[in-house]
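quick one: magnesium ion bound model?
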Amino acid sequence: MNDTILEVHDLQFKRGNREILNIERFSLQEGETIALIGPNGAGKSTFLQVMALLLKPTRGTVAFRGVPVTSRNALAIRRRMAVVFQEPLLLNTTVYDNVATGLKLRGVPREEIKKRVGRWLELLDIAHLAGRRSHQLSGGEAQRVSLARAFALEPDVLFLDEPFSALDFPTRLSLLNELDRLLKETGITAVFVTHDFSEVPYLTDRVAVLKNGRLVKTGTFEEIFKVKPRRENYITSLYRVFESDAAG
Ligand SMILES: Nc1ncnc2c1ncn2[C@@H]1O[C@H](COP(=O)(O)OP(=O)(O)O)[C@@H](O)[C@H]1O
Ligand SMILES: [Mg+2]
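yep, here:
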């Protein structure tokens, strides 16, 4: 449980002359979920993309299970990772094919693809949408598809970049709860980026704070915010009342 799965060291990322990231050291432990928080423009998305090997750092190293990433091994390591973005970025095809495509590209056998897609559509409660085309989905449904697509890859590390920020409050709440359950059940290591720290207590107690491209604090929720982490039970119960009223 306490093995390092991903580590960055002496990392710098520049756009032109502008330094966007400067991170001395950061590591992810096998099986943990960490929340990466910070104001808009802090560099969260850039940092996530560097760790997910979608952007190459200007300087410094990213190491996966102790092996430094190079241009030779990057693709193989990249295939151990999955990313969920704020915009679901679905292909213009069915829900089923959206989840299956990544598996096909990775050469997963046909029977296994069917099994895995079926399983993850069930787990995300979208099995009934399998034949629906992506443009006919609500925001919450589309984000469920992109979660199913990511989990179906059975990645070692899952990166989530403000995945629920564009969703309405009740949808966001149920997806936070479901994501929490799925991460616990699968034991997948996860980095959850958000600018909204009220989301953090649903998923984890470990927080890293990024400001102006620098990691300014890492610690438990309470160490960082000086208040106990609290899921918004009060608000949740208000919504439950609303839902049962609406149903009745
Ligand atoms: N494609 C880009 N081209 C130029 N500047 C960018 C680009 N993407 C991000 N930036 C800049 O890099 C900084 C960090 O951005 P970003 O990583 O998106 O922050 P966050 O996700 O925390 O809001 C910001 O100042 C942003 O304007
Ligand atoms: Mg961002």
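Residues 15, 20, 38, 40-46 surround adenosine-5'-diphosphate (ligand 1) (CB under 6 Å).
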